[in-house]
Amino acid sequence: MKHQLQQKFNEIYHKEAQHAYFSPGRVNLIGEHIDYNGGLVMPCAITFGTYLLISPNQDNVFRFKSLNFDENPEVNVQDSYKKDNDGWFNFPLGVIEHFTKDGHKITGLDMLFFGDIPIGAGLSSSASIEVVTAYALNELFNAGYDKLELVKIAKSVENNFMGLNCGIMDQFAVAFGEKDKAIVLNCDTLEYDIVPSNLGKYVLAIINTNKSRKLVESKYNERVEECQTALKDLNKELGLEYLCAINAATFDKHKNLITDEVVRKRAQHVVEENDRVRLAADALAANNLSEFGKLMYASHDSLRALYEVSGKELDAVVEYAKTNPQVAGARMTGAGFGGCAIALVHQDAFGTFSKELEAYYTDKIGYAPSVYQSLIGDGVGTLLVSSEA
Question: All domains of the chain, ordered by start, with CATH?
Fold first, then answer.
């Protein structure tokens, strides 16, 4: 892959790339729509991600090239930058803007991006782009940020430059991921534990529904607002900073404070999902994949019925998984509204699982999903640059 990208960089820019970086995508094993509610999530990095090859130029311009998109603009080096419509390059441009506002002089760059993450599938392609750009700029311009600061910069770009009120999970996972391990992250304190993810004879299946969605245009921000309303209602009697500061038992005693039934459902999912992450971490640590799978199914059911961020496509994947005894558990992953589901599938049955799921899904939805097998991989890092294969 690196050799092919180096050749492509040479074709485009007529010179060698001096630096190369990689940042993965992520899946969230459990703990959905928790990150902006101050609770626990359990993401892991995957082996798909974003490659960035880069060289400085003397032309006082940023050249954004991607092998995934037709739009490849050039932006003059300036004192500040603004989002330009909805182009993909706004993600790295927002990172440049943040570095610039922090007082770092970012000079002209020729950049080539390539991602093997399915775009719009809910595997954090945007966070992957943001983090790999921040990591590269930090190294190239000796900005002195530590990894956590880079994560916070990437989140700020998503919130303030792109306009999506997301939490910190995606950026954290693609930066701090470790091979064959999951992260249990407290999104309030940013304290985290690394949990060995011994899947035994099971593999992680990633099922792209092939129904893409743009989160900024979805009801994602609406869910954030609903959670804030629930928190305000609960704080008529409780002094909570986040919804996840209480457990399900405490919520049940005070849920009558939330007068809007829909808002109450949203809060119920958040609080109960946070409890599920704790149980899932214990199950994974004990290699109890049967219990872990049950919690995955319970998570999906809650996201479908209470949080209402699933849909017929994601539901079809989970419906099929429940009929297959070789599947330990399945659920939607990511923000929902389309995108991807994940499943724990016995390794010997993966081929059959893929074929049968494709047939079931196509019959239900009218077109096929894409099914991938992924490992749990490492977070962002530097790649050796070489023109050799």
Answer: 2-195+377-383 (3.30.230.10), 197-374 (3.30.70.890)
